[in-house]
């Protein structure tokens, strides 16, 4: 089944009790049993809910996995993965990663004896010597947030397999439409479905997709034992978002390409970060592992000046100044004070995340209107 058919049909069947074509919102906490232990597969809604079951099957299919495990947020999904580790274990992670992921490792898990190490993975072959006997998990985000660095998933997975280390790829920025890490050798894929998968900025939800029953069982155990499950309404909204995932991401990528080109020619703009540019580091890796280059574009000014950035951030009208990404509407953000405020300035500066860096999440509006909006905002600087 191809992707555009999968989003509509995979894992989704008419509701068995009524024939409803759309999966109903099973707003229930428990299920009646005929006799002790004699039930229809559902006992209590933390453990299992039919709306969630359909979403989990759909997500597993989109990532070419076998099992999907859903959580109340992307970070709750990551938290479940961290709970598979033990004190003394080490997570080797990309250094330019989502601020909340960095915070979870360093502020929540390091006090429990887990160790996080953050390295540049753009040269994938260099990670081999970074792996120690304590390294149990390699955490990859690609494209990264907000520098849009590209990491070679296949190469990382080959090295990890040799060293018997698990790999999880945070695929939030690409979405399953553009990139499928399990096909490239990853053990787990993480999504903040809050972003492209939900796609309408109306739900917070996370998921992990895996290939093996062993990992799935561990994650279902943690899902049930710790209880960070999404409600049925959120599962329904996510299922609804999935149906147009390919159409939305395709249009957003098209817009992003035009906007990246426009920015790169603008006299007031400095560096533009967009994996679709031939001179973007690892552009060839992006071409090989992604179907398109995504809809996130970051840019800087010649001078690292917070005031200039602030003027632009305050003066767009269609681009809304907000955290998050991946929705149908375009957003503009300032990573240094917003999404990445929890990362120390010294760490940020190492990867080029300056005080004037601006990140765009390109939506599906008419691209001429988006360009005009940026143009009038640049007039004030
Ligand atoms: C948003 C985001 C997360 C966290 O997801 P939530 O649903 O907000 O908890 C994790 N990784 C990336 C790359 C994100 O953009």
Show the helix and strand layout:
Layout: H1 3-9, H2 50-62, E1 67-71, H3 74-82, E2 90-94, H4 99-109, E3 115-119, E4 135-141, H5 153-162, E5 166-170, E6 188-192, E7 206-210, H6 213-226, H7 232-242, H8 245-265, E8 272-273, H9 283-289, E9 296-299, H10 306-315, E10 320-321, E11 331-333, H11 345-350, E12 358-361, H12 367-378
Parallel strand pairs: 2-3, 2-4, 4-5, 5-6, 10-11
Antiparallel strand pairs: 1-7, 6-7, 8-9, 9-12, 11-12
The structure holds pyridoxal-5'-phosphate.
Task: Give short descriptive properties of this protein.
381 residues; alpha/beta; Aspartate Aminotransferase, domain 2; seven-stranded mixed β-sheet; binds pyridoxal-5'-phosphate
Count of individual domains: 2
Overall pLDDT metric: 96
Structural class: alpha/beta
CATH topology of the largest domain: Aspartate Aminotransferase, domain 2
Morphology call: globular
* DSSP strand count: 12
Task: Report low-confidence residues grouped into runs of 5 or more.
Answer: none
- Estimate the strand proportion: 5-15%
User: If classified by CATH, what would the architecture of the largest domain be?
Assistant: 3-Layer(aba) Sandwich
Biggest sheet statistics: 7 strands, mixed
Q: How much is the radius of gyration in Å?
A: 21 Å
What's the CATH superfamily of the largest domain, by name? Answer: Type I PLP-dependent aspartate aminotransferase-like (Major domain)
CATH C-level name of the largest domain:
Alpha Beta
Strand order of the largest sheet: 1-7-6-5-4-2-3
SS summary, helix count: 12
């Amino acid at each position: 089944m191809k992707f555009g058919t999968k989003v509509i049909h995979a894992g989704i069947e008419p509701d068995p009790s009524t024939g409803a074509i759309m999966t109903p919102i099973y707003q229930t906490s428990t299920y009646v049993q005929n006799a002790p232990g004699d039930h229809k597969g559902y006992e209590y809604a933390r453990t299992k809910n039919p709306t969630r079951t359909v979403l989990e099957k759909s997500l597993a299919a989109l990532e070419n996995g076998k099992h999907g495990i859903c959580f109340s947020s992307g970070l709750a999904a990551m938290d479940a993965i961290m709970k598979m580790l033990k004190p003394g274990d080490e997570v080797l992670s990309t250094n330019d990663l989502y601020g909340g992921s960095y915070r979870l490792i360093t502020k929540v898990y390091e006090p429990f004896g887990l160790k996080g190490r953050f390295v540049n993975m753009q040269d994938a072959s260099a990670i081999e010597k970074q792996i120690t006997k304590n390294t149990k998990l390699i955490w990859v985000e690609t494209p990264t947030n907000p520098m849009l660095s590209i990491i070679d998933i296949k190469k990382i997975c080959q090295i990890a397999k040799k060293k018997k280390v698990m790999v999880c790829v945070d695929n939030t920025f690409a979405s399953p439409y553009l990139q499928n890490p399990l096909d490239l050798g990853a053990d787990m894929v993480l999504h903040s479905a809050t972003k492209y998968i939900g796609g309408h900025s109306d739900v917070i939800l996370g998921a992990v997709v895996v290939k093996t029953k062993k990992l799935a069982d561990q994650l279902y155990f943690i899902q049930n034992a710790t209880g960070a499950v999404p409600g049925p309404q959120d599962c329904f909204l996510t299922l609804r978002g999935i149906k147009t995932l390919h159409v939305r991401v395709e249009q957003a990528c098209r817009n992003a390409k035009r906007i990246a080109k426009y920015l790169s020619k603008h006299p007031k703009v400095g560096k533009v970060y967009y994996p679709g540019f031939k001179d973007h580091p690892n552009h060839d890796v992006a071409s090989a592992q992604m179907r398109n280059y995504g809809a996130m574009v970051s840019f800087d000014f010649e001078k690292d000046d917070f005031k200039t950035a602030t003027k632009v951030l305050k003066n767009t009208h269609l681009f809304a100044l907000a955290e998050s990404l991946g929705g149908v509407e375009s957003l503009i953000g300032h990573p240094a004070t917003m999404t990445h405020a929890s990362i120390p300035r010294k760490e940020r500066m190492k990867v080029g995340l300056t005080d004037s860096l601006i990140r765009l999440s390109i939506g599906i509006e008419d691209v001429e209107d988006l360009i005009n909006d940026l143009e009038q905002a640049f007039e004030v600087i």
